[in-house]
Automatic annotation (TrEMBL):
GO cellular component, one term: cytoplasm
Family matches, as InterPro entries: CS_dom (IPR007052), HSP20-like_chaperone (IPR008978), NudC_fam (IPR037898)
CS domain residues: 13-101
Name the UniProt record assigns to this protein: CS domain-containing protein
Annotated source species: Citrus clementina
Gene3D superfamilies for this protein: 2.60.40.790, Single helix bin
Annotated GO MF terms: unfolded protein binding
One GO BP annotation of this record: response to stress
Length: 155
């Protein structure tokens, strides 16, 4: 049932350099890699509030501050089928990000509201695994999934 609440599509920003989506716990960034470059030449450095990636020996492909802090010990990157997939673990579970990169392509208010509603439904699903919230809808504004009714329970 939780799969039904997964992101339906990715957001595309920074002149189509990357796409991204989010869950309660993670921000996922997808970057199409240039052809004819061996995978061992790529690097990605993830810090609490900064990300840098590129091809070794060249200026970074991306070198930006993150919108919100992440947990570096559980954030990672992989390469598969010419795509770099970066998984950033949110420091504040349930926080709705309008963009992963500071000052770059913020989601408009309507899309941000839709993301917040989807994350709230993910939270309900996680807290009540026997129920299916995939068809649930909010009327009016949606509460913050991170703080609603005492906040997200810690494991």
């Amino acid at each position: 049932m939780a799969e039904k609440l997964a992101p339906e599509k990715r957001h595309r920003f920074l002149h189509n350099v990357f796409e991204w989506d989010q869950t309660l716990d993670e921000i996922n960034i997808y970057i199409n890699l240039p052809p004819n470059v061996h995978s061992k030449q790529f690097y990605c450095k993830i810090q609490s509030k900064h990300i840098e990636l590129g091809i070794k020996g060249n200026p970074p492909y991306l070198n930006h501050e993150l919108t919100c802090p992440v947990k570096t010990d559980s954030s990672f990157w992989t390469l598969e089928d010419d795509v770099m997939h970066i998984t950033l673990t949110k420091r504040d579970k349930g926080q709705t990000w309008a963009s992963p990169i500071m000052g770059q392509g913020q989601l408009d208010p309507y899309v941000t509201d839709q993301e917040q509603k989807r994350l709230m439904l993910q939270r309900f699903q996680e807290e009540n695994p026997g129920f299916d919230f995939s068809q649930a809808q909010f009327t009016g504004s949606c509460p913050d999934p991170r703080t609603f009714m005492g906040g997200i329970r810690s494991d």
